[in-house]
Amino acid sequence: MYSIPYFKEKDYGVLIQFMQQHSFALLIGNYNNVATATQVPFLFEERGERLFLKGHIMRNTDHHKALLKNSMVLCVFAGPHAYVSARSYSNPHTASTWNYMTVHARGNLTFLEENAL
Asked: Which pLDDT value is given to residue 1?
C-alpha cells in the first residue's frame, strides 16, 4: 500500500482540527500478530511540539492486555466518506472509487496510574 503525496495534508493545524472534530477514533494495537481495536473518545493536549491523546479503555480486556505487552498503537480518525461513481467522470474508462478523509496517528501508549485518573 502506498500514499499519494498530493492527497496528504501538510498543515499540522488542519490535522489537529480534523482529529478534534472526529475525536471518536479507533485505537489499534497488536501483540503476537493479533490485532486488537477499540473505539475511544479522545481528548487532546499539546505540549510544545508534541501532541498527547487521552482516552479510556476498560482494564482486563483482550485489548488492555495486548497494550500492556506492546505499547505501539495506531489511532484512526475517520471523517466524511462517499461513493464516487465512474459516471461522474468525463473519461468513460475511469473506475468508481471511494472518497474519504482520515488521519492516522501513531505513537506509544502509556497507562496512567490510579492517582492520575
From this structure: 45
Residue 74 carries which side chain, given as an amino acid letter? L
Neighbours of 112 (CB within 10 A): 9
Judge whether 43 and 54 are in contact, CB under 8 Å.
yes
CA nearest to 62, candidates 37, 83, 81, 85: 37
C-alpha cell at 70: 506492546
Q: How far apart are CA 80 and CA 104, in angstroms?
A: 15
- Closest residue by Cα to residue 20 from 54, 44, 36: 44
Q: Is the pTM of this model over 0.85?
A: no
φ and ψ at residue 68, rounded to 5 degrees: -65, -30
What DSSP string describes 63-115? HHHHHHH--EEEEEEEEEEEEE-GGGSSSTTPPPEEEEEEEEEEEE--PPPGG
- Given this model, what pLDDT does residue 51 score? 92
Averaged pLDDT in 10-residue chunks for the chain of 117 residues:
66 93 96 92 92 92 93 96 85 81 94 82
